[in-house]
Structures are given as structure tokens and as C-alpha cells.
Amino acid sequence: MLEDFAKEKSDFLKKSDKSKKGCIDKGILKIINLFNSKSEYYTTSSCAGRIVLLERKSKKKSECDWILTKHSKVAFDEIASSLKKHKIKNEIWLKQQPIILHVACINLDAAKKLLEASRKIFKHSGIISITKRRIVIEIIGNEKVEAIIADKDFAADEEYIKHLTRYANRNFEENKSKSDKFLSIIKKL
Amino acid sequence: MLEDFAKEKSDFLKKSDKSKKGCIDKGILKIINLFNSKSEYYTTSSCAGRIVLLERKSKKKSECDWILTKHSKVAFDEIASSLKKHKIKNEIWLKQQPIILHVACINLDAAKKLLEASRKIFKHSGIISITKRRIVIEIIGNEKVEAIIADKDFAADEEYIKHLTRYANRNFEENKSKSDKFLSIIKKL
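C-alpha cells for the assembled complex are given below, as produced in the milestone run.
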């Protein structure tokens, strides 16, 4: 299994990045490099955390238009100008999403070790797939904002969106400091 | 292992309910009874989904005052009157939280079977603990609202809270219909 895992890892890491952004968030690079330097692990997808404006296109939550995506704190003016440029046809949500990482593990022992370490900081982390080839853990942060701010028939006022942005940015920072703690924990793994 | 698991299960199910509410949500009873009727599984905690008003007491997100907790849809008037009665000292968040279930599984095969079935509907479900005694899966829904509505220095206007309540109730229903689908899937396990 060890050799197969090493080969799959090397094949996987050679592939180009398939995410919308096309590259790995700076904020998470140290964590990713650390995992990929260990023979027992490699990362298959990642987001350091972000603040987004989404338009929900249908009942299916996954069908969305991405109006604004920031992998950093956001200024109210950016949100306001994105909204101004956009013709609102459906629900618009402001979301602050935490870190999310998928880590492939060589075996159950390696997965258990990582799971226990992860859950000290990110309590909704869990093993999401077990195959003969690898075990995948999803590590996911706690800080979230999910607030509707407009629809065809209403829009939250500027004052409220300003406040909401402030708390989204505060949570973004909290997510970052927890991610830093997580890095120091996995260094000791 | 089979006998140990059966004994632990029976001991666990004899214990009294430790949740704040003191009983199992009606909305989730069928799912719980189904799991507990199977020799491979039992549930250790559960919430069908809820809509809550929380006051964050400190930086630690877990330290909260629960101002209002509804395991059903909520009327705007209930929210307004809860807010009126409450002296706001800190951040107040309106949250609609999805189903969450912890299920103990007898072994890895039983856990894998349940994990695959769960992730068809609830994609953030995962194995959160593996010990010699049991494996625990956390099943968690997707629908969420997490919006700040007041703090010491501001309050969202009534009109906005009315709209937010409407979407929280809509999500609550979506969570319910997904939970019904989940029930029909685990019936076939």
C-alpha cells in the first residue's frame, strides 16, 4: 500500500489546479506544504476561507452565480459596487466561509492521528471516504456567516450590510488565527 | 465485539436524555428509532434542526445565552418579543441550524455503509471517532442561516428581520424534506 500511495500522491500533485481560482490560497500554503512533505498525507483540495456574494439560481443550493469572491477581508465599498453592477434576479447571500481541507491519508492509523489532532480545533472534521487506496479527511472550520441580503422583492439597507461586513471580517480573522494554531498542531504530528 | 457493542448500546439507551430540551425532537424520532432497531447502530445525540436566537457572551463561540430556541418554524412576532424582553449586552445572532446526528457503529464496514448513504444527501457527514469500542459518525445537514441582528451599538431593522425569518423558515423546511429523504435511504441499509 505504501508504494501505491506514494505513486498516487506524486501523480496527484503533478496535476494542475482545478479550482475556480486556479491556484492555492496563500493563507493555506504552509499547511498544504507541511502535509505534502509527510509521507503519510497529501492534500486533494483546499480553501483558506473566504467571503463571498452568491446569487442562488435555483432550489439546488449548488447552482449559484458567484458575484464576488474574496480570499481576504472585504471592504463594504467592494460589496456595494458588486451589488450595484449586478441585476438582482434571485436571492443574494453574503457568506463568510471557513477553512476547508481534504487530506488523503495512507492508512487508518494515520487518519486517526490526524482526526484527533484536527478535532481539537475544528470540531466538525471527519473521515469522509475510506477506500483501499486511501482515506480522506475533511477538515472544516467553525466560523460562518450566512445571511441573505437581497432578493427580487427586498434589499437589506446599507447600514446593516456595513455591520454584517464588519462581523464577516472579524470571523475571517478568527478563522485565520485558528488555522495558524492548526498549523502548529500538525507540525507536531 | 458484537456482544460488547450490544451491551453498551443497551446501557446507553437506558440513560436519561442529557440535552437542554430533555427529550428527543419529534421531527427526528423516526430516524432515531430506525437506527436503534438495527443491531449495527445506535444514536448518541441528535437535533432535528432548529431556529435560535443566541447572545455571544465572549470570544469563545460556545459561551452563549440562548434567548429563543424553536424546533419548528418561527413567527417574526416571537423573535421580536424575545428581543424586546432581552437586555442586549453583546452580539445577537439569528441561526437556523440543520439536522445533526451522532450514530455509533459496530465496526468499520457498518460505518462505511452508513457514511456512503449519508453523504448522498448530507455531504459534510463524516466519521468523527474510531475506538475499539465503536465508531461514531456525525451526520450534518447543509441548510444554514447565521446572521448577526444586533449588538451593543446597532440593531437590524424589523423589515430585514422579517425577511430573514422567512428564509430561515424556508431553509428549516428544506432541512426537513432532506431529513425525510434520508430516512427513506437508511430504511434500505
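The domain at 2-186 of chain A is CATH 3.30.1960.10 (SSo0622-like fold). Chain A has five helices and nine strands. Further analysis is deferred to the final report.
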